[in-house]
Amino acid sequence: MLCFCQGQEGHDMEYLEKSAAHTDHLFASRHSHRKACPIDYKQPEDLCPSLATIEKVAAAKIALELQYKTMLHDASPREQRRRSFERELVLQERSYAQCYVARKLWYIEESDHTRQTRALKTTSMARSREKSISIPGFEEVRVLGRGSFGTVRLIAKQLEDRSVQCYNSGGFDGNVTAQDNSMPKFYALKVLRKSGMLKNCQEGHVRAERDFLVHAESACSPWIVSLFGAFQDNTSLYLIMEFMVGGDFLGVLLREGVLHEDIAR
User: Fold this and answer.
1) Is 192 a residue whose pLDDT tops 80?
2) Using H for helix, E for strand and C for coil, what is the string for the chain?
């Protein structure tokens, strides 16, 4: 019985040694195959994406940001304006009939504003192939200044339109403030090159500037210039703002250096 157990144990040890040798052979063959067929891998710093790829990536980032911001936000801009309007009605202590008429007029004006915004957003596909900028009812007077990403131009209104309704190219995210005949005659047109902003990762700053001007316009702040429209074409972004005589604050700082207290006031 003892001899039988010793023979069985020796057979098991021989089987284990053969299995280990077979495993080592398989591992060695796979390892040698990996050495013979290396993977051509490029480091991230060796990649040089094209301008079109950079624009698509930036557009995807902005689209996702706006989508989640809309989903997580408590109320839409239209709802916020409605709440502000209702608060004004409560403070004015109007009668029920007066409130009804005021609400009806507000909904008509809000519908006109939404319709104009939609028209601004849908003009890009129809006129995106045109190379030069052409704003109906406006003409360029002169260049006010030049910056690292574009220029600021003085434009004049030719026609007595009710509002800025149609541009050469598409809406810049759609939230454009609708204006009426109280708009001034001259405007400052800020032209920003897309290529320069994308290469320097400044698209977020431009969007923040535009959003700030839109919110300031809705708040009727007397200390911030008004934004009348924003649109874009294949190469540039355009912001139509209120023209302020002597409003080049950067030029004043470059000329004066340090402003005295009376001038700052």
Assistant:
1) yes
2) CHHHHHHHHHHHHHHHHHHHHHHHHHHHHHHHHHHHCCCCCCCHHHCCCCHHHHHHHHHHHHHHHHHHHHHHCCCCHHHHHHHHHHHHHHHHCCCHHHHHHHHHHHHHHHHHHHHHHHHHHCCHHHHCCCCCCCCCCEEEEEEEEECCCEEEEEEEECCCCCCCCCCCCCECCCCCCCCCCCCCCEEEEEEEEHHHHHHCCCHHHHHHHHHHHHHHHHCCCCCCCCEEEEEECCCEEEEEEECCCCCCHHHHHHHHCCCCHHHHC
